[in-house]
Write a structure and sequence with these properties.
Two copies of one chain form a homodimer. By secondary structure, the first copy, chain A, is of the alpha/beta class. Chain A folds into three domains: 2-69, Winged helix-like DNA-binding domain superfamily/Winged helix DNA-binding domain (Arc Repressor Mutant, subunit A, Orthogonal Bundle); 75-189 and 357-378, ATPase, nucleotide binding domain (Nucleotidyltransferase, domain 5, 2-Layer Sandwich), CATH 3.30.420; 199-350, ATPase, nucleotide binding domain (Nucleotidyltransferase, domain 5). The first copy, chain A, is built from 13 helices and 15 strands. Chain A starts with a helix and ends with a helix. Chains A and B meet through strand 12 and helix 10 of A and strand 12 and helix 10 of B. Chains A, B: This is Sugar kinase of the NBD/HSP70 family, may contain an N-terminal HTH domain. Chains A, B: One of its GO terms (molecular function) is kinase activity. Chains A, B: Belongs to the ROK (NagC/XylR) family.
Chain lengths: 379, 379
Amino acid sequence: MRAHNLALVLRQVAAAHRPPSRADVAASTGLTRATVSALVDDLVGGGLLAEVGPAPRAGAGRPAVGLVLHAYGPAGLGLEINVDYLAGCVVDLTGTVRHRAVLHVDQRPLSPDTVLAAVADLGAQLRTEAAAAGRVVAGAALAVPGLVSGTGLIHRAPNLAWHDVDAAGTLAGGPLGDLPVTIDNEANLAALAELHADGQGLDSFVYVSGEIGIGAGIVLHRDLFRGARGWSGELGHVCVRPDGPRCRCGALGCLEQYAGQEALLRDLPAGEAGLARLRADDELARHRLPSAGTSLGVALAGVVNMLDVDTVVLGGIFGPLAPWLAPSVEAELSRRVLTSAWSPMTVRASALGPAAAAVGAAGAVVRDILAEPAEWMRT
Amino acid sequence: MRAHNLALVLRQVAAAHRPPSRADVAASTGLTRATVSALVDDLVGGGLLAEVGPAPRAGAGRPAVGLVLHAYGPAGLGLEINVDYLAGCVVDLTGTVRHRAVLHVDQRPLSPDTVLAAVADLGAQLRTEAAAAGRVVAGAALAVPGLVSGTGLIHRAPNLAWHDVDAAGTLAGGPLGDLPVTIDNEANLAALAELHADGQGLDSFVYVSGEIGIGAGIVLHRDLFRGARGWSGELGHVCVRPDGPRCRCGALGCLEQYAGQEALLRDLPAGEAGLARLRADDELARHRLPSAGTSLGVALAGVVNMLDVDTVVLGGIFGPLAPWLAPSVEAELSRRVLTSAWSPMTVRASALGPAAAAVGAAGAVVRDILAEPAEWMRT
């Protein structure tokens, strides 16, 4: 009961538009003021809540102290392995990104052990930076571009040519020491970041994570949809043309072959250099992005016809390219999605920058603490 | 509490492998024998449970009376409008189909009002048959090949060229009188029929309803997955080739154009006559079904990559054609589904015959009564 009430108080503080007083929390939770005060004392003592000085107020009476999530409370470390970069960030309890790092290195020539060691080093370095700034990292989550089991086994990451990589086992006892690390799919974590960055605006959507590979995170009624076994969202391997070019997964005509980063940048420099060139050269972008958008729209129309969501969020490299991609995505959706006849689809660019999955990973750690503060305070 | 316990007792009786005694029910529910006896008396009085004579038993003591769901208790009426037939059936509380009717008539030249009046007549006739046999129809559900809202509005049924048909309003006060009628998508109801026909074997699957159109009912962890707004499963309009033939929905290259009944039967007699010819002529079937199976497999592979289910059930006309369709469906799935590398897919023919959606509709009515017996007994 106490664990439940601690979480309830934290939720009220997190959801409030301005720092609520203890009396405000009592009123909104229905708990007595004495109970709320005891819970707040515990949460302040546990480093999860901070008190902020009273704002000048009209009227009589002693102005009340306001409560906020503690910006120097436990923080989350988010890490991301992607095909051509590693990324990491530290997010505080309020959801603010405090430290960030990205390493643009093609991971494909490297062994899984080398890549995992490098991302662990990046994490350890961010953890040290956070500690120097007065923040304790409470846990970590790692985003990977592949299909992961609950035990941290990466079954398959086609663009890295990884299969059966025991990521959790490899990380244990490395540079991250005994920090708990969970492992999840990068598009899932990026979709969660999008959901929480947006406040209350989004209900159900497909987040499209455009990188070397293309993944999707599906959110239904503000919950991540994971499919029957946790391996949903492999949008990059939805077929666009059954006799199209061969994909790294082995099949023919997968979406990645038409709209993945390497298809968009053929004959251009790889990575950020090529992407910057596309964004800067409107003529070039108009020449090659709409047809990629059409392929994306064909694949997404099938997804929407099956899953019934009304919003598509273009993320990763697709976010900044949305001005050239979105019109043809929208055209295919309105042509092919049955419900669009009476309920038009929305296509929008992600509100997040690059490495959204790392932000989502760190945010997931922090939200776990807020959801079960008693767990954290016991440690 | 009493309502909850009535349902609990019914569930125990329904799940038992042999008719349980009142003492058995008390033991399995944790309720006292006195409470169980009172509840059972109510359920027997309400016509939901029946008592069956004691089986000869070894040992001393008076043999106990066994409890079963009442085969003459309230029954469900299931109705189905499909593109080239109307169907109906009455299912008793035990899930057994007691009455059945199918009318093979192409519905496309007819107006929605005419079709709805005809299916209501069919329902009224089945209700009369059931009454003559001593069964009271407690409610009805209607399956339609389109996208339906909770209020019984058919937003769109592409193969009937229907849109915005107020089916619930049109049925009200017609030949079905004041019988409550709910309306749902035919593939959803057929998937529910498959789930319950199979006992405990199926957990998560895509049921493919092959008719003139192609629909899908998605079951995840034994629950129907409806998508964000209830309009999931439009498999027939997943794209196979972006520049393929034009579909009735207006888009190009939809699955229905490759694997719908009319594509399978081109140059053959329409309907059951053509299907019977295909099934009887192995050479003909081998000539045209595998390529339809490949298209089905391409579309389903995308669905499975997105939704993560491990079983595909081929239903409707695809069930009896599975010997010729399934191998190419399986080949595409194993080629294209990422998880199939370590977790092979299962493709199987439906356990149900034709008009599975009508059976699913009737079963849904009966399961609603069993889930909330107090509601039924109050009326």
